[in-house]
Amino acid sequence: xxxxxxxxxxxxxxxxxxxxxxxxxxxxxxxxxxxxxxxxxxxxxxxxxxxxxxxxxxxxxxxxxxxxxxxxxxxxxxxxxxxxxxxxxxxxxxxxxxxxxxxxxxxxxxxxxxxxx
Length: 117
Description:
Elements: E1 3-8, E2 11-16, E3 20-21, H1 23-38, E4 43-47, E5 53-54, H2 56-69, E6 74-78, H3 82-90, E7 98-100, H4 103-116
Parallel strand pairs: 2-4, 3-5, 4-6, 6-7
Antiparallel strand pairs: 1-2
Helix pairs in contact: 1-2
């Protein structure tokens, strides 16, 4: 599995190092992320800056992550390339997920939210 992971504050940053999240990658991707959530990582930043294409199974895997969190955590997305951003807008997933242009922007927002708590 080609995924880079790092912990920043109490957020897990996950970055798939693939160009496509499709049927050949989605099931394993979903399993890995579900395992991370089930082991206590409840704040996840999904950095899709390397991804050029996501099909319906890939989008389904991302939605499944949100369902696995069950309202007890957060899934934020960053780094969407134009084609992936278009998919999120056309499928109206941009209304479901918080999306930021970059990892830095997402982390700044996360820090601000933490200061309010």
